[in-house]
Amino acid sequence: MSSIKNFQIIKRKYGVMLTLFLMVILGAGIVMAMKAPDGKNAKEPTEKKAKVAKKQDNTVWYYISSSSNQSDFTVAGNWATSNNDDECQSTGTRPCQISVAASTPAQLATYLSSQTGSAVLASSTGRKE
């Protein structure tokens, strides 16, 4: 009989401790869930800010080729960061300048490879005869 009584005392003592332990775990889980709503990582906004900070400024590129062929408008070698003697005008068959997030000829080539000649002409500021 004493062993049953001892078991009930131990059961009561550890039962209360187990209940308190589970309540602490549950409370910690609730607090953590409230800090990251919708299951999103709390670090995500910082990473987005870092990506925004890396945004490159636009560079102005001038079309320096005499070709009016629209396929030549997408060739990076036909563009330079300084204008040749052909001045920008309001009319003409060639683009004058474009402003894009490409500071090197390689970056410009990547940008131009995703464009059509007519798109480059349409996005240019001014024209050349």
Q: What structural keywords apply?
A:
single chain, 129 residues, alpha+beta, 4-stranded antiparallel sheet, 4 strands, 47% helix, rod-shaped
Descriptive overview:
- It is a single chain.
- By secondary structure, this protein is α+β, with helices and mostly antiparallel strands.
- The protein is built from 4 helices and 4 strands.
- The protein has a 4-stranded antiparallel β-sheet.
Any chance you could write out the topology, listing elements then pairs?
Elements: H1 2-35, H2 44-53, E1 59-63, E2 79-80, E3 94-100, H3 105-113, H4 117-123, E4 125-128
Antiparallel strand pairs: 1-2, 1-3, 3-4
Helical stretch tally: 4
How many β-strand stretches?
4
What characteristic shape results from the CA principal axes? rod-shaped
Strand content is 5-15%
Could you name the ranges where pLDDT drops below 50 across 5 or more consecutive residues?
Answer: none
**Could you describe the largest sheet, including whether it forms a barrel?**
4 strands, antiparallel
Structural class: alpha+beta
Distance between the termini: 110 Å
Query: What number of domains?
Result: 2
* Helix-strand sequence: HHEEEHHE
Rg on CA atoms, Å: 34 Å
Helix content bin: 40-55%
Provide the residue-averaged pLDDT: 83
- Major sheet: arrangement of strands: 2-1-3-4
Describe the structure in brief.
By secondary structure, this protein is of the alpha+beta class. It has helices at 2-35, 44-53, 105-113, 117-123, and strands at 59-63, 79-80, 94-100, 125-128.
